[in-house]
């Protein structure tokens, strides 16, 4: 995964909206008494707690490639471990794997998924969710700005192909699992505050920009991006802003 650092506090600014897809994903996992549950890319650990609560008899393993996120999870009492998903393999006895809003950062994940599924025992569950909005204005505008003369060549950004379409995930999972459930949902998120879409993507999509640019240039980039985002996502008379967010889900039982 990318070495770009994460800001756990900034990420949790929109905790309610970011947590809802996890809950929708988890609702489709039918495991009753798993031995080991893995939160693959656990972030600050706030959702790992939900896995432990649902399956109190299971050994819950939390992994993340970000030292900042691992530290934040440990502050919550989660025994999180530093690990890169590219190098991870399910341990024996792993009955549930959940990876939420992680694999979009891993270009090789379509190649990793078959390896993980084949390593799981029969009857195990694998559940994933990834944003499907890399073609949305919020991300297109970042790429367009980064391609302008002042910024060109200074930032490496993902394109729309970083996340396959639902049908591609369905075919991939169907080749390695008995039961496959794939769907997509667009959440029409109602945000508040000044430049809320900019605030949202500052914790996620703008991470590579922050990593590539110095603090002054990063703030200059944000300042150029802000009015473009306001035009694409206008504020309503009551001060709120609608931010459509498409997400792709896949659940498989091996």
From TrEMBL:
InterPro entries in alphabetical order: SAM-dependent_MTases_sf, Trans_acon_MeTrfase_C
Gene3D superfamilies found in the cross-reference section: S-adenosyl-L-methionine-dependent methyltransferases, Vaccinia Virus protein VP39
Xref: SUPFAM superfamilies: S-adenosyl-L-methionine-dependent methyltransferases
Record protein name field: Trans-aconitate 2-methyltransferase
Species whose genome carries this gene: Pseudonocardia zijingensis
């Amino acid at each position: 995964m990318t070495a770009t650092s994460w800001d756990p506090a900034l990420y949790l600014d929109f905790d309610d909206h970011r947590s809802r897809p996890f809950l929708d994903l988890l609702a489709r996992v039918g495991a009753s008494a798993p031995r080991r549950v893995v939160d693959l890319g656990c972030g600050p650990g706030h959702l790992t707690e939900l896995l432990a609560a649902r399956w109190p008899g299971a050994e819950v393993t939390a992994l993340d490639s970000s030292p900042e996120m691992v530290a934040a999870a440990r502050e919550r009492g989660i025994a999180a471990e530093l690990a890169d998903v590219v190098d991870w393999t399910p341990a024996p006895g792993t009955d549930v794997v959940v990876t939420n809003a992680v694999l979009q950062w891993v270009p090789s994940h379509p190649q990793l998924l078959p390896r993980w599924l084949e390593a799981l025992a029969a009857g195990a569950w694998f559940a994933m969710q990834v944003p499907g909005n890399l073609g949305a204005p919020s991300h297109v505008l970042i790429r367009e700005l980064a391609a302008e003369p002042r910024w060109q060549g200074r930032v490496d950004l993902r394109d729309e192909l970083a996340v396959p379409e639902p049908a591609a995930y369905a075919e991939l999972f169907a080749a390695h699992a008995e039961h496959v459930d794939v769907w997509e949902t667009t959440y029409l998120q109602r945000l508040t505050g000044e430049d809320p879409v900019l605030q949202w993507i500052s914790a996620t999509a703008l991470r590579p920009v922050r990593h590539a640019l110095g603090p002054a240039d990063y703030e200059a980039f944000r300042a150029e991006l802000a009015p473009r985002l306001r035009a694409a996502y206008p504020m309503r008379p009551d001060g709120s802003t609608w931010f459509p967010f498409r997400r792709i889900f896949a659940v498989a039982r091996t």
